[in-house]
């Protein structure tokens, strides 16, 4: 029994000694917006000011109902300059006696004064986004409560901080917005800083700075399974030195990249006289970043194309206060869009975001703040070192950025190389600097100037500036094709990830984007997916599927291009599915898997899908590529049956009744099988459709869009049992022709042959009138469920889609997606479900666009660049549609797909006319 007690006591002692070697933390605040602690609080101005109350920490005080909301563009005299006074009582564990105790703030905006038990902890910290700490060992009490008092100044006393952080294109907040905690270190010997450079060749180089007189440091690496990787190694410390360099060679480490984010845990143990006195653990990844001048950026020896986005630390209900859960959600969405990189705009992020980038695999450009203004050199030096100290060992960080768009204090440039053991490249976003051309929002000028004829590595740190529904996916295919094929291109970063809509506690909790300043995201404020999300997902898929038609001779073979950097396609999986599509019902299907082909990165090859013999009896084939982790990269859809095949199945021409015609000087009045149709005898336009239930309010068409309604000389005749009403073709006066055919079944066929009136035209097609107040929903066969633009066609899927009416505008409340109004591609048929009556339109032509009403035009900038143009009328059937621009570019400057449509035929040859054929079923069945 005595021996058991001694063994138990030894185990307890060993456990306690190991714990004592670790840096210990005691949170005084919560850890994020989902975990807060209430502190006493007093706001000096604005809402709820002038009284002591409580506030959750961390938080931005505006989101808690205090102070004043400000966007960075607000004039200085209108900006809130309130202060927040915080108080919090805390106890310190008695076990921490005789240890060094620091109080750590991970982020406080903007100037922060800290007192412990009435005494200043140190000088006021200036700068919002940086981790700072004070040694408070001599200020705390162990026998009683300690009083923490913090005064936070929203407006900095240092004007350079305001220039760098507050005069910016983003929301300006106040408060202790990131966690606050105490840390306990061994008093005489402890590690202060570890700088790590773990390279792809297995070499581990590190520099360790410490306090005390320890005599050696031991390093051990653990894999994700917790087992030791390689051998421990020990390095002696020269007496009197305060730093030591460590070097060791490991064999065949699993490398870190965005595709395979392999991490190790490195345990650094400081010892004296054979006794471990302090241990620090770091997550590390073996990888090498190299910039080759006039060539590109190489990671682990592979030339990279960065598919990136800019990201703010932001959440609508908590401002800049986020959480690890939000970081995970953000990174997973980026990965779902097949992105491999993210730029921190325009300040360092929460540490948990970098942790998630490390673990899930995302390359990071970390940025010192400076939107257009700069920190002065003393302040910038201090803040840059704080950023480096906190962020330097994350393998995800492969670039540093010194400010943004002119916010570059060049006197700080040398510090990045001096402070960073890894010597990662330094970027000046929006400048030609360091061998990089990063200019923002260039028009589609590939082929001229720097882009194809320059010498720098091309990597715009912002391009295709999203606003409302413009940019992002719109234009990306043209840009990316050019980027992918240009050997000097290293890709780029879209602006930006999520709409910056903040909850206004002073305006009944409405979501506010400050007009058109904040709705720049690919996703909404609460991660609602816009149409561009799926366009990006397809265009940036690392498995590129070459376009192919489901012809009679199709043998199941697809040409693939591997656009991964490190993954062979035989590490992916491929699924296929054949579907028979039926409105209102689940589709019958057959499915299977295809053997993943051996295709190395940047090479092409074949994927063979072994389809059943009856594959042509199905409507569509779907091919899904999955990443090595099993997550979908994209699903491509391929129609098997063409519109003409579908039309033959649907359209009913024969019937038991006859077609009856009555005419007078103005109208043709036709009836068949209970359907009454009225046509204007002069213009040929459909005036009214009626069935037994009453009038269907679909009329006044076809009106040509970008064409002349010069239908003339209408005549009627019977063609067998069918009535045909036709206009006369005349090369000089009536070169556009319209023909109606009414079948005994009551179905109506319309054939229009026409010539656009303009050589360059925004769109072409046919319009009809239908009151928007009458529409309830549509169900259609075609590409969906998201709408398209001429320069944003990709990202949809072929199928049958049911869409209830909504009046959503992209980037505005209620952020309800997919939107209802807009253009839809590859229409086969559409049932218009009205509040009173329904009717169906079918086409036997390929590539018909359906237009549903006109979406709200959100407020553009003064340059009106987006130009989201729609035809006249209410419902349209289009041969060509319009593109959309970005905040900074008009549609035509986003690339060839954004340019206007071109048609040329001065001879008015009927054989070269555009053709639109539609069939109408007004029976209401």
UniProtKB/TrEMBL annotation:
Q: From the UniProt record, which GO molecular function terms apply?
A: beta-galactosidase activity; carbohydrate binding
Q: Where is the Glycoside hydrolase family 2 catalytic domain?
A: 289-416
Which Pfam families does its entry note? Glyco_hydro_2, Glyco_hydro_2_C, Glyco_hydro_2_N, LacZ_4
First and last residue of the signal peptide: 1-20
Supply the EC number(s).
3.2.1.23
Q: Name one GO cellular component term.
A: beta-galactosidase complex
Q: Where is the Glycoside hydrolase family 2 immunoglobulin-like beta-sandwich domain?
A: 190-287
For the protein in the UniProt heading, the enzyme class is hydrolase
This protein's source sits in the domain of life called: Bacteria
**GO BP, one annotated term:** lactose catabolic process
Where's the Beta-galactosidase domain?
A: 558-614
Quaternary data: Monomer.
- What's the family? Belongs to the glycosyl hydrolase 2 family.
Name of protein: beta-galactosidase
């Amino acid at each position: 029994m005595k021996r058991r007690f001694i063994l138990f006591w030894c185990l307890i002692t060993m456990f306690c000694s190991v714990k004592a070697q670790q840096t210990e933390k005691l949170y005084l605040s919560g850890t994020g917006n989902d975990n807060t602690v209430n502190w006493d609080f007093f706001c000096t101005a604005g809402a709820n000011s002038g009284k002591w109350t409580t506030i959750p920490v961390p938080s931005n005080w505006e989101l808690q109902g205090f102070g004043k909301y400000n966007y960075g563009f607000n004039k200085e005299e209108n900006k809130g300059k309130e202060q927040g006074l915080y108080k919090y009582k805390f106890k310190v564990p008695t076990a921490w006696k005789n240890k060094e105790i620091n109080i750590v703030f991970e982020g406080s905006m903007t100037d922060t004064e800290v007192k412990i038990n009435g005494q200043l902890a140190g000088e006021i910290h200036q700068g919002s986004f940086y981790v700072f700490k004070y040694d408070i060992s001599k200020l705390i009490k162990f026998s009683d409560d300690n009083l923490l008092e913090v005064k936070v100044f929203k407006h900095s006393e240092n004007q350079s901080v305001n220039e760098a952080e507050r005069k910016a294109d983003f929301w300006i907040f106040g408060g202790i917005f990131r966690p606050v905690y105490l840390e306990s270190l061994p008093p005489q010997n402890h590690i202060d800083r570890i700088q790590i450079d773990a390279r792809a060749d297995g070499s581990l180089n590190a520099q360790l700075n410490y306090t005390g007189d320890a005599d050696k440091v031991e390093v051990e690496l653990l894999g994700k399974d917790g087992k030791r990787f390689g051998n421990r190694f020990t390095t002696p410390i020269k007496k009197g030195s305060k730093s030591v360099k460590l070097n060791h060679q490991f064999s065949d480490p699993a490398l870190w990249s965005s595709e395979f984010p392999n991490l190790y845990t490195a345990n650094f143990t400081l010892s004296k006289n054979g006794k471990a006195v302090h241990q620090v653990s770091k997550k590390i990844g073996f990888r090498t970043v190299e910039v080759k001048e006039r060539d590109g950026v190489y990671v682990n020896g592979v030339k990279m194309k960065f598919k990136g986005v800019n990201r703010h630390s932001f959440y609508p209900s908590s401002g800049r206060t986020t959480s690890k859960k939000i970081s995970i959600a953000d990174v997973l969405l980026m990965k779902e869009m097949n992105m491999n990189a993210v730029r921190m705009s325009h300040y360092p992020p929460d540490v948990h975001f970098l942790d998630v980038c490390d673990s899930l695999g995302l390359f990071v450009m970390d940025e010192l703040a400076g939107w257009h203004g700069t920190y002065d050199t003393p302040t910038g030096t201090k803040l840059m070192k704080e950023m480096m100290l906190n962020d330097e060992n994350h393998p995800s960080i492969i670039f540093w950025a010194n400010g943004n768009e002119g916010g570059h204090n060049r006197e700080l440039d040398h510090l990045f190389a001096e402070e960073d053991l890894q010597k990662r490249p330094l970027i000046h976003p929006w400048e030609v600097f360091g061998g990089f051309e990063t200019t923002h929002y260039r028009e589609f000028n590939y082929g001229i100037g720097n882009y194809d004829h320059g010498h720098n590595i091309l990597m715009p740190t912002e391009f295709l500036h999203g606003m409302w529904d413009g940019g992002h996916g719109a234009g990306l295919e043209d840009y990316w094709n050019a980027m992918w094929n240009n050997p000097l291109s290293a890709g780029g970063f879209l602006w930006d990830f999520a709409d910056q809509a903040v909850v206004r506690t002073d305006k009944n909790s409405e979501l506010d984007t400050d007009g058109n300043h904040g709705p720049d995201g690919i996703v909404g404020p609460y991660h609602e997916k816009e149409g561009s999300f799926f366009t990006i997902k397809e265009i940036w898929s690392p498995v590129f599927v070459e376009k192919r038609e489901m012809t009679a001779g199709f043998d199941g073979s697809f040409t693939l291009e591997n656009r991964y950097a490190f993954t062979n396609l035989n590490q992916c999986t491929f699924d296929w599915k054949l579907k028979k599509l039926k409105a209102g019902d689940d589709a019958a299907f057959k499915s299977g898997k295809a053997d993943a082909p051996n295709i190395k990165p940047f090479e092409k090859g074949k994927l063979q899908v072994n389809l059943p013999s009856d594959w042509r009896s199905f409507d569509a084939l779907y091919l899904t590529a999955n990443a090595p982790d099993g997550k979908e990269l994209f699903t491509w859809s391929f129609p098997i049956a063409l519109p003409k095949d579908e039309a033959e199945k649907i359209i009913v021409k024969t019937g038991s009744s006859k077609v009856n015609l009555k005419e007078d000087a103005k109208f043709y009045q036709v009836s068949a099988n209970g359907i009454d149709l009225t046509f204007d005898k002069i213009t040929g336009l459909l005036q009214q459709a009626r069935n037994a239930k009453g009038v269907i309010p679909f009329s006044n068409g076809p009106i040509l869009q970008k064409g002349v309604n010069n239908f003339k000389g209408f005549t009627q005749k019977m063609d067998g049992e069918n009535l045909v009403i036709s206009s006369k073709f005349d090369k000089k006066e009536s070169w556009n022709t319209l023909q109606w055919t009414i079948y005994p079944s009551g179905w109506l066929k319309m054939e229009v042959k026409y010539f656009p009136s303009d050589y360059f035209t925004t769109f072409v097609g046919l319009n009809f009138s239908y009151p928007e107040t009458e529409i309830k929903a549509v169900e259609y066969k075609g590409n969906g469920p998201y709408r398209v633009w001429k320069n944003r066609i990709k990202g949809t899927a072929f199928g049958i889609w049911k869409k209830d009416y909504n009046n959503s505008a992209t980037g505005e409340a209620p952020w309800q997606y997919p939107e209802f109004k807009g253009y839809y591609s590859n229409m086969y048929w559409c049932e218009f479900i009205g509040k009173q009556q329904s009717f169906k339109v079918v086409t036997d032509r390929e590539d018909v666009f359906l237009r549903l009403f006109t979406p709200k035009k959100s407020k553009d900038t003064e340059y009106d660049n987006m130009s989201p143009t729609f035809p006249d009328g209410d419902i349209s059937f289009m041969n060509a549609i319009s593109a959309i621009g970005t905040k900074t570019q008009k549609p035509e400057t986003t690339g060839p797909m954004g340019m206007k449509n071109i048609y040329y035929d001065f001879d008015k040859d009927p054989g070269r006319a555009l053709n639109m054929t539609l069939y109408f079923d007004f029976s209401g069945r």
